[in-house]
Amino acid sequence: MAILFRNVRVFSQEPAEGSSGETHVLVDGNTIRAVGDEAARLAPADAEVVEGKGDLLIPGLINAHFHSPVNHMKGMLPSLPLEIFMLYESPDFEPLRPSPREAYVRTMLAAMEMLRNGTTSVQDDAFFVPHPTPDIIDAVMQAYRDVGIRATVALDQPELAELDKLPFLAEMLPETLRAELREPPVFGRARLLECYRHLIETWHGHDGGRLSAAVSCSAPQRVSPDYMGELDALSRAHDLPFYTHMLETKLQRVLADEQPRFAGRSLVRYTADLGFLSERMNVIHAIWMDDADYDLIAEAGTSVAHNPISNLRLGSGVMPFRKLRDRGINICLGTDEAIADDAVNMWSVAKMAGLIHNIGGPDYGRWPTASEILECLFQGGAQAMRRGESLGSVEPGKLADLALVNLDSGAFTPLNDVHRQMVYCENGSSVRLTMVAGRIVFDGNRLATVDEAAIRAEAREIFSGRQGALTAARLEADRWLPYYQQMVSKAAASDIHMNRWLGYADEH
Known about the structure:
- The chain is an alpha/beta fold.
- It has a domain at 60-386: Alpha-Beta Barrel (TIM Barrel), CATH 3.20.20.
- Helix content is 39%, strand content 17%.
- The strands form 3 sheets. Strands 1, 2, 3, 4, 5, 15, 16 and 17 form an 8-stranded mixed sheet that branches. Strands 10-11-12-13-14 form a 5-stranded parallel sheet. A 4-stranded parallel sheet has the order 6-7-8-9, with helices on both faces.
- Helix 3 packs parallel to helix 4, helix 3 packs across helix 18 (452-464) and helix 4 (134-147) packs parallel to helix 7 (189-203).
- The longest helix has 17 residues, at 100-116.
- The mean pLDDT is 96.
């Protein structure tokens, strides 16, 4: 089916322009066929017409890093350091195992929110408690299929024992507790790879390529080199993004000197030495890195997923944005999970990315510009998804993943600078239409694909019945809390000759 956007302004990445004058855009099937007067001439007689009224047609926003399984836990935890936060967020606790319907509904919650805000693509680094199974994988993918978003999904699951992933704990724990953390997960490498085979064979390329697979090792310290190698081989064979969290926290930097397998090497150097740092890899967070790490990432053509709101919520630190841009590193933007952002709104992420780095130094010529942030949001996300040639701009031949933004709104009145107002003023409320693969999935009032009120009502019912299991999981985590607090404090006090905490150097 053809759809003609008539009398729209088309977003331009060029700062001096920001957008075109009023023009037309023709979508044919899942692709942008023409932009300009030609679009009106080529439109078939039966084309659906969307009257733009001078509003702004933009590429769909790309959420380049996300974890869907905690969509139901918004606001549930206070701000905590990552390693303590994870005790309560994703414990390996059998009573928290979801039913397929629960997994479906919780995936829907954020997908609906994203589409309403003009986000058309998501990279979901999905972790599973206590471990993935084919029916739960299918439930997540079916939710993305039904709602109409473009989704690239990986299985984020650790393979090693807790004591192999963290520093200091072995010396802090009494023997009885130490023994519990010495055991690796029962669901090991062979079964994880079976789950990946299911994901790839069943879902990769589904719905005309709208649904696809990625791979994830979670983080290099959480898996063995052999498992990383197996994932890299899958990534290479199918051209899949490879997700890995790296140096999100200072504790992860300290780990290099605390475990023999790293031999003093950062997680970036360790990964590069194994041969797995590549243009397919998405390094997530990239905060506690030095110049040598960033040089390795640049040389490999690796993308970095920047999650500024999550990094602030967990006190992880501030990624040095300009160091990466100076090296030509591709930066994409993500919300991270709903429990660590408390929303799934890429407009908020873009604004925070445009602001937090302004207090990184006094040279305002090196602060991010609005145009740079939008480049990260659109083209950066497309490149990280391995979709650089087909997403991220409004051009003939690109996939028709689009959002129409109302310029007769408070955020854009008066219209002074399109780029700055998109980054600093808009919050998603001006989105009047969202299109994915040529299909209008949000018309400004409702989603065309699902009954949102019914999904929300079902979510309330399901998760009110899960409070007992969540309370039991918190009590289980409380057993470990004193030791994790000691571990985090010891890492924070370590001298690693760098700082990513604002104001910390003045106090210590």
